[in-house]
Every structure is written in structure tokens, then in C-alpha cells.
Amino acid sequence: MSALAALRERLNRFGSAVEDPGVLPLALPPIDDRLPRGGLPLGRLHRVAGAGDDAAGAAATGFAARLLARLQRRGPVLWCAAADDLYPPALAALGLAPDRLILVRPRDENGVLAVTEEALRTEGFGAVLAEAARADLLAERRLQLACEARGTTALLLQRRPIAPRAGRDGIARAGASAAGTRWTVAPAPSGGAAAWVGPARWDLALTHRRGGRPGRWIVETEDGTDRLAVVAELADHATETVDTRRRLAG
């Protein structure tokens, strides 16, 4: 599978303006082992979504911020959102250095996607994050093509993604996506003692990775840094079944 995934990556980048920028190891072996090349593919689009209510949206924002914090070592990072509810000191607590972070506030989600695409085609950014709950497949494909133009990584953050519409049979199915990886995040109970609040924990699921395997973990955060720790790997038989069918079919 690793050789096949590497070949697919090369074919996907055929004709690209930049060489393969490699991968970003998450320094979490149980998760990196699920990714074909041992890390998050750079120069691609990745989607992070909250798995439920506002609390899940906050958890998804925290995970995306920590990914962005690791990517800021490659250059300044841009966070593009129409909402005016980001709190810079909290972002600093998640590991984002204020002098490496650019916040942009377009008028609406269409503006968010337009600014993000332009930033991805501009040299010098370490990564670009777009908050857009309604981004469709065409928008994702445009962002992916923009990623390939400069080899810059993009994160699409959907705090509370719009639920897919039901088909004629009444069943709502997840739509297609151009994202290289898709993650869902929800809050998990803290592991601290009863008298104290312990480090924040998230229920993190890798729901899709081309050439890789889905997985689900409880991860623990460390304030003031971009580091995470895997507390436990969760069994998700439904995810594994879908993955098995995909591998058998492909």
C-alpha cells in the first residue's frame, strides 16, 4: 500500500510547478503509522471538522490551530475567517506565535475561499487555513490546485459543517472531497483528578486518507505548545469495515 500511495502522489503531482514538499510527521506514532508516508502530506488540502455541536467546533479549531502551529516553522501562516470570534491569546496558548500569524477577515465565505486561493498561489506562506462550512467539491478542487502551484499546505476548517442533503432514498451520504485527509474532532472527558481540571482531551478521528487507513484516538493537549499525546486508540469497527471494502475494491 505504501508503494501504491507514493505512486499515486507522484501521478497527482504530474505537471505541478513544484517538487513534492514531503510530509509533516505529527510525532504521534499510532497516527503517523496510519498515514502512508509517516506524516501529513504537505502541499495538499486537509479538512478538519467538528463532530457535532459548538463544543466539537471548538475542539476542531484547537486541533487545526496546533497543525498550523507546526506548519508555521515553514513560514508565516494565514488564518482566513468571516467570523470575528478568534482570540489571539488563546491561539498563542495553542502554540501559534503572534509574529508568525496573519488573520484575515473577509465579508463572507465566498471571500474566505477567494482570499485563501490567492494566498496559496502567493510565495512565502508556511500554510493557509480557511474557515468555510459550505465549501463544496469544486471549491476544494480549486484550493487543491492552488496548493500544488506553490507547494503550500491548506487546512479547511469546518467548525459545524453543513449536513449533507438526503438523496431520493431518504439517506444522507457524505459528499465527495478533494482533501488529502479528512479529520473529525470532538471533546473527550479530561483525565485529571476529581479535584482538578486535567489537560484537554479530544476524540480525534482520521476518517479518510488516500492510500492510508482510518483510525480513531483520544489525544491529550499541552498548553503553550503544538504538542499532542495519544492517550488511547479507540476501536471503530464501522470505520475499519469501510476501509476494508475500499482496499478490496481498489
Overall description:
With 250 residues, the protein is an alpha/beta fold. The protein has helices at 2-12, 29-32, 54-71, 88-93, 109-120, 137-150, 237-249, and strands at 23-24, 40-41, 45-50, 77-80, 101-104, 127-131, 153-158, 181-188, 201-209, 215-221, 228-233.
List the topology elements:
Blueprint: H1 2-12, E1 23-24, H2 29-32, E2 40-41, E3 45-50, H3 54-71, E4 77-80, H4 88-93, E5 101-104, H5 109-120, E6 127-131, H6 137-150, E7 153-158, E8 181-188, E9 201-209, E10 215-221, E11 228-233, H7 237-249
Parallel strand pairs: 3-7, 3-8, 4-5, 4-6, 6-7
Antiparallel strand pairs: 1-2, 8-9, 9-10, 10-11
Oligomer: single chain
Q: How far is the first residue's CA from the last residue's CA?
A: 11 Å
Please count the beta strands (DSSP E, at least 2 residues each).
11
Shape: globular
Largest sheet: 9 strands, mixed
What is the percentage of strand-forming residues? 15-25%
Helix content: 25-40%
Give the averaged pLDDT, no decimals: 82
Low-confidence residue ranges: 166-173, 237-250
Structural class: alpha/beta
Gyration radius, to the nearest Å? 18 Å
- Order of strands, main sheet, comes to 5-4-6-7-3-8-9-10-11
H/E series, N to C?
HEHEEHEHEHEHEEEEEH
Q: Please count the helical segments.
A: 7
